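Q: Now give one record:
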Amino acid sequence: MTAPVRAVAADAAPDAPLIEVTHLTVRQGGRTALHDVSLAIAPGEIVTVVGPNGSGKTTLLRALLGGTPAAAGTIRRRPGLTLGYVPQKLAVDATLPLTVDRFLSLPRRAAPADRRAALEQAGLGDLGGRQMTALSGGQFQRVLLARALLTRPDLLLLDEPTTGLDQTGSAAFYRRIEALRNEMGCAVVMVSHDLHVVMSASDRVICLNGHVCCHGTPATVASAPEYRALFGTGTGGALALYQHAHDHSHGTADG
């Protein structure tokens, strides 16, 4: 019998990982969704998880959130760690009169000043009185982001947050995420399928296909044989975008 995952307090030193996952295995519907996955998320870094459909990306996020049972492994969380979560999509009944302000106060009431601050941080400005059903796709995703920011997270988790947005909208969303990291100091873990956009906003990339195929800086992963076997060799655009955005910014070390 395999041991269940245990969430235990990690070393609270300032440079200690926010979350450390060791040999995580998750089984769902009689199949192994994740096998022997180990990774760590450092304070303030942006980590993007990529992989083909069915590779376990969303399962990994749910395990980090504590919402998915696991068959084996250990998840260590820094004591007092606060998480914010942006789902891939959220259905809102078109017949339900629900303003942005009301949505941000579900399930628990948020103070007006906190709602305004979260909307500003998400890049929305004063849209609190707008009906949720009247929002564009990009505005809707930013409202979901604002809701996650209300918790003032140490770690922000996003599951393909730009689904349905065009490349321009996706790029703007990822720039906002990078700005939030710089403003708030939070770490970010994003699941993404936008290979030609997401590299520019990542410090580190984890390529997943049921297990960790490869990981490191975007440049390292884009040139890895395991990554190219999954996505082909047409990654020059992603790598060029990454290099253009980061040539004169802070460097990152391989994971």
